[in-house]
Amino acid sequence: MDDRTKLFKALADKNRLRILKMLEVRPLCVCEIREILNLANSTVSQHLAILRDAGFIYDIKDNKWVNYHLNKRTDDDVAYALLMVLQNRSFDDDVYRKDAERVHQVDRNILCNL
Amino acid sequence: MDDRTKLFKALADKNRLRILKMLEVRPLCVCEIREILNLANSTVSQHLAILRDAGFIYDIKDNKWVNYHLNKRTDDDVAYALLMVLQNRSFDDDVYRKDAERVHQVDRNILCNL
DNA sequence: TTAATATTTCGGTATATTGCGAAATACAGG
DNA sequence: CCTGTATTTCGCAATATACCGAAATATTAA
User: Fold this and answer.
1) pTM of this prediction?
2) Going from the N-terminus, what domains does chain B have, and what CATH number goes with each?
C-alpha cells in the first residue's frame, strides 16, 4: 500500500518528471541536472534520492561523478509500467523537448566547476 | 506540464487510490465511500473533486445521491494508461481486497442516514 | 413552502513537501 | 596527508496538502 503511493508521490513533482525524461536521453550526474533545472545541487540530490527510493533510477559512481540511470530493468511491474507511461508518445511537452536538447549540449567538464 | 503532474498528484494519496480501486467494483456515492474509508464526508468530497479534476472519474446525479464512476473512456491517453496500471494484476494489496468486499456489502439506504 | 438528506464549500489546524545555504562526506590527485 | 571537486545531509523557511466540523447548497419528499 505505502509502496504504491511511494511510486506516485515520486512522480507527483514537475522537476522529478523532468529528471526522468532527461534520463531517457542519457545518464546524467547531479551537476548536469542542476544546470538544466536551475536548482541548487542539494535540491537535485534530494529529488534523485526520492526517485531512487521509489526504484525508478539507480546510480553508478564513476570517478568523481555519480551517474544516475533510468532503471528500465526494474523487477517491479508497476514501476516498469509507469516508466513506460512516461515514454508514451502522448506524454509530451515543450519543456521536456527543450530539456532533452540541453542534455545533448551540456558538458560536465565545463559546467561542474562551481 | 502542470496537467501531467496533476495526474500523478491525484494518485499520490493512499485514500484516493483506495477510492479508484473501489470504483472498479461499481459506482459509489460519497457516503458509501465515507463509510469504507472512515473519513469525514467533506474529506471524501474533496478527494473526489481532485480525482475528477484530473479526469479519472466523473459523477452522475441520481435522485438524492451523486454517483461517482471510473472514467474508463477518458480521451486522455496518459490518464487511461494510468487507470490500466491500477487495474494491473501486480497492483494489488490486502487493503484493496478488503475494500472491494465491503463495497459489495454496504447499502446506502441503511448507512446514509447520518 | 418546509423539512430532511446528501453533498459541497469554507475556515482553520496539523503535517508533508520543496526549496535553499551551510556543513559534512566521499574520493581522486598531488 | 592535504586540496579540490562532486555529492549528500542537515536545519530551517515557505508553501502545499489532508483532515475536520460548521455552514452553505441542492434536491427530494411531505
Assistant:
1) 0.94
2) 2-103 (1.10.10.10)
Q: What is the DSSP letter of A77?
A: H
One-character DSSP codes across chain B:
-HHHHHHHHHHSSHHHHHHHHHHHH--B-HHHHHHHHT--HHHHHHHHHHHHHHTSEEEEEETTEEEEEE-TT-S-HHHHHHHHHHHSTTS--HHHHHHHHHHHH--HHHHT--
A46 Cβ nearer than 7 Å to chain D strand: yes
Tell me which residue of A7, A99, A108 sits closest to A57, measured CA to CA: A7
A24 touches strand D (CB under 7 A): no
The rounded distance, in Å, linking the Cα atoms of A100 and A96 is 6
Write down the ipTM of this complex: 0.93
Positions 65-104 of B with beta carbon below 7 A from strand C are 65-66
The predicted pLDDT at position B112 comes to 79
| CB proximity B77 to A under 8 Å | yes
Q: In this complex, is the C-beta atom of A8 within 8 Å of any C-beta atom belonging to chain B?
A: yes
Q: What SS3 state is found at A57?
A: strand
Q: What is the pLDDT along chain A (114 residues), one digit of tens a residue?
A: 567 999 999 999 999 999 999 999 999 999 999 999 999 999 999 999 999 999 999 999 988 899 999 999 999 999 999 999 999 999 999 999 999 999 999 988 888 765
Residues 6+ apart with CB under 8 A from A16: A10, A47, A50, A51
Answer yes or no: are the C-beta atoms of B32 and B109 closer than 8 Å: no
